[in-house]
């Protein structure tokens, strides 16, 4: 059942049965280093998804509108300040504890840290595929260790995952290369990667996907705070998702900035990715 009304969130949570995929909005952008705006992204993505200019079918023909195990929980109510991180973590943990899986709509990329904290406890041996123009491996940015430029440093320091593979990266500086070496991050740099290369063969175990929309070339996804030329095409990204070699147990789609997306093009891309990712998570759940 599809619902885009936040008022129905509590009811939807009560009705959430085991083996559902919960779509959860995280309206949070206080850790953005350059522009605010991603807090409005979840609603923008849902609006694009439910627009009558398209339909709710995936490319392989699953219609999410007919799928009772896809549940839209609306947006979290988040207090200002870093207390929001605990709320995000507890909310995700609650859904996982009910026996469902979670696809989160950010928000800036800082939200991935509390989301992954919850997943790490639930899925031993969790690995991450992080698709992004940026490695987000700064130790701190502007004195802030919780900046959206830092979540993967915290994730690795806390030992939350067994493997971190990054794809689409094309902004590495010396500091972030050092950080990647220090943490053993496997980076498929955009300048070297070609579609035929696919993903590493040793990508294994339950997989969490963290998808920053700026991984896409700005020609395909202009509505982000940090557009970076030289990125993936939408088709290449869809092909990567189609070919994931290991079960997908959780995901986020982050960094859409509706204030930079006047024609809603990037929201439309995010909505399409949401459909394909949710359908893939459902298949992996019930397989
Ligand atoms: Mn990015």
Which features does this protein show?
globular; binds manganese (II) ion; 8 helices; 15% strand; 8-stranded parallel sheet; Arginase, Chain A; alpha/beta; 287 residues
Would you summarize the structure shown here?
The chain has about 290 residues and is of the alpha/beta class. The protein has one domain: Ureohydrolase domain (Arginase, Chain A, 3-Layer(aba) Sandwich), CATH 3.40.800.
User: Going by CATH, what is the homologous superfamily?
Assistant: Ureohydrolase domain
CATH class: Alpha Beta
Oligomerization: single chain
Structural class: alpha/beta
Give the count of helical stretches: 8
Broad shape? globular
Q: Residue-averaged pLDDT, rounded?
A: 94
Q: If strands are numbered along the chain, what order do they take across the biggest sheet?
A: 2-1-3-8-7-4-5-6
Radius of gyration: 17 Å
The poorly predicted ranges are none
Could you give the distance between the termini? 21 Å
Description:
The chain is α/β, with parallel strands linked by helices. It has a single domain, classed as Arginase, Chain A (3-Layer(aba) Sandwich). 32% of the residues lie in helices and 15% in strands. The chain has an eight-stranded parallel beta sheet, sandwiched between helices. α2 crosses α8 and α4 packs parallel to α5. It is globular, with a radius of gyration of 17 Å. The model has no long low-confidence stretch (mean pLDDT 94). It binds manganese (II) ion. Manganese (II) ion binds at residues 132-134, 212, 214, 226, 255.
């Amino acid at each position: 059942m599809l619902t885009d009304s936040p008022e129905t969130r509590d009811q939807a949570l009560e009705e959430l049965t085991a083996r559902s995929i919960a779509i959860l909005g995280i309206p949070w952008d206080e850790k953005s280093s350059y522009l605010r705006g991603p807090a409005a992204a979840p609603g923008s993505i849902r609006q694009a998804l439910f627009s009558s200019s398209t339909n709710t079918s995936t490319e392989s023909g699953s219609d999410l509108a007919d799928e009772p195990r896809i549940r839209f929980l609306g947006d979290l109510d988040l207090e200002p300040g870093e207390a929001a991180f605990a709320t995000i973590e507890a909310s995700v943990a609650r859904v996982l504890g009910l026996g469902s899986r979670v696809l989160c709509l950010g928000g800036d990329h800082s939200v991935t840290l509390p989301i992954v904290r919850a997943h790490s406890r639930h899925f031993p041996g969790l690995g991450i595929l992080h698709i992004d123009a940026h490695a987000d491996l700064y130790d701190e940015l502007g004195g802030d260790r919780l900046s959206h430029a830092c979540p993967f440093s915290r994730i690795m320091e806390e030992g939350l995952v067994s493997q971190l593979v990054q794809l689409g990266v094309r902004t590495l500086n010396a500091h972030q290369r050092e950080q990647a070496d220090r943490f053993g991050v496997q980076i498929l740099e955009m300048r070297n990667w070609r579609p035929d290369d696919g993903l590493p063969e040793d990508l294994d175990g339950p997989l969490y996907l963290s998808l920053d929309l700026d991984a896409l070339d700005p020609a395909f996804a202009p509505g982000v705070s940090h557009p970076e030329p030289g990125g993936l095409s939408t088709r290449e990204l869809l092909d990567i998702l189609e070919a994931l070699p290991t079960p997908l147990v959780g995901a986020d789609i982050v960094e859409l900035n509706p204030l930079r997306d006047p024609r809603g093009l990037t929201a439309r891309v995010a909505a399409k990715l949401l459909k394909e990712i949710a359908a893939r998570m459902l298949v992996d759940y019930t397989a």
